[in-house]
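Limitations
The structure tokens in this dataset are predictions for the assembled complex, not deposited experimental models. Users should treat interface geometry with appropriate caution, especially where small molecules or nucleic acid strands are included. An illustrative entry is reproduced here so readers can see what is and is not provided.
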Amino acid sequence: MEADNTVEDSHINGTSELVGVGNIRRWQDGQGDVPVNGVFLAQDPWTQMGTGFLWLDGGSAAQLEELALLLGVASRPQPGPFQAAPALALPGREFARLLSDEEMWRQAVVGPELAVHLRLARLARILVQRADVLPFAALCDWGWRQVLRMPARLAQEDGVFVRHDEGPAGWYAGMLIPAWRVGAGSALYRAYLGQAADLPRLAGNEHALGAWLWVCTDWLGRRSLVDSPRVNEVSARQPFQIRYRGEEELLANWRRSLTDTSLQGPLPGFVADHWLMMRMLALELRDSGWGDALFDTTGEADWQVGFELIPPIQDESGTWTLRALLVHRWFAWRAPLAEWWQQPERGRWRIGHAVLREPDRWFLPELARAAEVCPAVARLLVQPAPAQTAVDAGEVMELVNQHVPRLLEAGFAVFTPRWEHVDLRDVRIRVWVQRVNRRRPAGRRSAAMDSWFDVDRLIEFDWSVAVGDEELSSEQFEALVREQQPYVQSGGTWKRVPVEAILERIQDFTKGVRAGTSVWDLARSVLQADDTDVPVEVSFSAEAAPAQQFLRSLAEAKAPPPRPLPNGFRGELRDYQKHGVFWLLQLRDLGIGGCLADDMGLGKTIQVLSFLLSLKEQGQARGPHLLICPTSLLSNWRAEMQRFTPDLKLYIHHGAARHGLDEAGRTTLSRAVATVDVVLTTFATLVRDAEELAQVAWDTVVADEAQNIKNVDTKQAAAVRKLKARQRIALTGTPVENRLVELWAIMDFVNPGYLGGESWFRRHFSGPVTAHPQGPQARRLKRLLTPVLLRRRKTDPSIQAELPEKWEVRDTAGLKSEQAALYQSIVDDLWQRLPHSRSDMSRRGRILAALTRLKQVCDHPCLVAGGRGDVDRSGKLSLLLDLVAEVVEQGEAGLIFTQFREMGEIICDVLAERFGWRPGYLHGGLRPGERGELVARFQAGSPAPPILVLSLKAGGVGLNLTRANHVFHFDRWWNPAVEDQATDRAFRIGQTRDVQVHKLVCSGTLEERIDELIAAKRHLSAAVVGESEGWITELADADLQALFRLDVESALEEDG
Amino acid sequence: MVNRSSPPEKEPQPAGAAVRFDETCWQPVWAVADKAVLRRAKALAVDGVLDWRYEPGMVAARVRGYGPIPEYEVRFPLVDNWQPHAERVADWFSRHPDWLAGLMAGNLPFVFLQRLHSAGMALWPDDAYVARFRAGASCTCRGSSSCAHVLAAALAWVRELAEEPVELLASVGLDVGRTLDEVHRLTYERLSGSGAVDAGIQDSAQAVARPWQPWPEEERVQVSGDESGCRRTEDSVMLSRNLSLYLRTPWGPV
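Predicted assembly:
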């Protein structure tokens, strides 16, 4: 035995030197390609491990001897198993060693029987390589047939069968056999067996092939067994198991029997208890692939019924075909069912390398099952020789969407044509605008006079859809939709057209087909296109050039070209403000309106004024402009106009005087309209004089604080909409884009119809955008608004760069008539009693007293005349409220400084009434602890009110109030240093935002004049004006009079 | 229970309607049995029917006995004998493959049952058969013709038919293989001339010696998705928990 081993080893070692790659093939080359053939015969008992025979088909005995030499086997030619020729007989395991050396057999010409054996040896090698083997044992004296059946029986019965006839124990031998856990492995095995069954010399001898696979697996497996280096680690992972008595010994014996690697002689046996052995075997076979299916020859185990959906051949009826076929589960073998019926024999069906025996036994009932879930299959099955059936174009969708998933779920294979996934980016909607029609007779926007281009004009256009390289005309596409057949053939593949997405886009601009599509509709549709949308390519004929220009300009409205600024503008525009003016001018050219929604303090007023002045200078204005604002802002507008655009002639349509008639019987308004550039009015006045104002053909209507018209049902909104204008502009500082219905109302005033009707807008945008603020509809709306809504925020980096960290805004308020009367009486009183000598102390005292009282009157008349601190009595207070409202709405915070303790209380009261929370009030009367607490509370942020009121002196020093980024100086201390100090409460280290300083000033009063004085001499500040207001008392009488004088016309803010 | 072997002719059935074959199809037989006997038969049918075989016109079965008698011999008559109609049946099936497929799936198309009915053929009991059953069934227990053993054998047999519905053909005296052969032959003949594949060519190609090469499918097995979870991530793989056997492949890729 040992000597034999040595010999064998030398053969193995010699293999690489002597035999080498392709040696049999090379030997055959010299022997006239004489084919080598061979079989394995499984003699009983199984432990003998059978015998292999090799012979040459048509070769001589001498050649066979040569082959034996070449293979290094000691066997001599002897009678072979099939009387065909002399053969070499080899012990089974040696045969396994020879046949599993693939290099030796590569390209060798072999007989079909040997080929099967080679394949099985190869399969064994793959199984061992994948560790898809398991240890097995059987009684030594059993025959192969019995042993081969055993694993499947043990695995299925999941238990024990014991032979009791020979006592409790017997001689067993161990073996490594396939475990069949890898499904494709057993499929391959069945394919080999199927082939073998066709070979006369192997047919009926299948158990020999099974035995051969086991012998190979065992031989290769044993050679690969190793002692694990990590036994402890692995055994630690094993669940604790109670061992039966004798189990350890049995396992040791079994294990030892598996490690013997001799090439010859019977397998060594060991004594084992039957019951225990069976139990151990059952454990090993658990989770293996052993079962009856392993021996299936009908193909049921490896094959499934499949269906193939075949597209129509182009240019034919458009009928699809559903074809039944058999598909191998693991390998790329398949055959249409039609072939089955076309072969005369029913016994077997050869597909690929596999042979299926009587497959109709399983595929017919499978077809019946498929017919239950798929009507097309049912139709297929009623025809004789069922193989395929026609599927109407209209049925394909249903088949693909409903029946195919059900077929797949039921375990059938389904093949559809390679639907190429069509990315939306590969789809284009091409719109060809041929002509822009004459203006439609009477539209809603008929007031848009003489615009170079009327956006309501109808266009004639045609469209098509391009999918990849295929172009579908509108008729073809509509046919696709109608027939619900969204497939297009393009370049050999079928593409599933995303009909829904395309349809949605097309409906965007064709929805008003009956009324015709306007340039406006087309523009809207193109504008709101998202990246995720099907792109629309619009091209224009020469006739439609104006429409093309309109679309292009609209798309570029956000980046308007620079233009010359008006010469008469007294001031300096920041870059973003210039941009705003250019934008308004661009919209003007396009004949559409816009909404300027810059943050408060960014200078919407001067942008509009600059725009209006530009129109005047270029002679573009076709009439007066109408400016509508809240009453509280009237004075501010007037003041700003006087300051920045004095060239614009202004008429304020406000107050009782507006009702006067001149000698010719003309109203003040009609007279003014003919001469002035701008008519300024309030929303309240507009409502009252709606009829009169609606008669005028305005050039531009500007609605300031446009949130006043956000509610369409209000009178002011209705009145504003009734106005006839060439262009409409809305100004607002509140973030409109978050309040969609308000936004719609404002945009509908600016550009009627641009956002569609209210209910359409709610459905299309409001709901979806509210639900998904970052969703596609939100993006769409944003794109749609881009040309007509300009909103800059203080926090935009580009804007921030232009703004100083601290910048001041003068907000001008008017006086109420009560305030004006009081003011005048105080001034009159002063002049009457004023001593003329400059040095007179009483003169100083009187002047200072009057100064204080005048300031108090500007703040609120009740400070002087008593009474309730109502908002209505003070123009400044109502302005403050509006400003605070904006601050609060933007979620920011502010400080309000006043020098009058009582005024601070009034402000607190008014804010509490308006907003529902009462701000803290920090004044000199508080104890230090209270002050600290107040400051800490304010700094802590919400829910503490976002406003803190401070008395100028108490709040002047030592506080850190960086939560606030707005500072309101409700009244003025005519010393900039004091004001600056107060401002610095907010503008300190720790302030992360820019600070905006609002100085509230009453127009036409000393407040305005001193403000101008200080502004002019600011750089001198401390040096000129000193630390107190005393410098005023030093002024000459004439200067003093000029300073104190009430300019009634500009001061008075009539109660609207 | 409606006797479903004779479909109602008045009510039109929807196309594709089918009748599922199961033991309720034999309700006419069960219905006339004594309740207590039937209960015993059902218990016995679970594991008391040792085997059964077809005899001419009969089913013969061995049923487990009790006490000194280890088993009883039971016989009961077949529902029908289609042998004289074998050709006609094969012709039907070749023209209506859905009938055959439905029968093999245990879901019998209604139109097929109608055709059977009008041809006077039966696939499961009707009233006439019930009478024949009572007259013809026998048991070595010498009890009545519808003793528990007979009923148990019938029940077990019917349940097996429901498991393997193609055997319904055998239950009416037809040879399943021969019937399928005949259906195939008729179908083939009807198609012949339309380019039938000559299987013989492949056969001769198979038997020729040729250079040996691996199949591409074998590669598939080597790399196919591993449902056993024994993907080889380590040098050695444990083959058996019980035996602590480890395997290492000394070769490179095959």
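Some entries come with short summary sentences. For this one: The first helix of chain A runs from residue 2 to 19.
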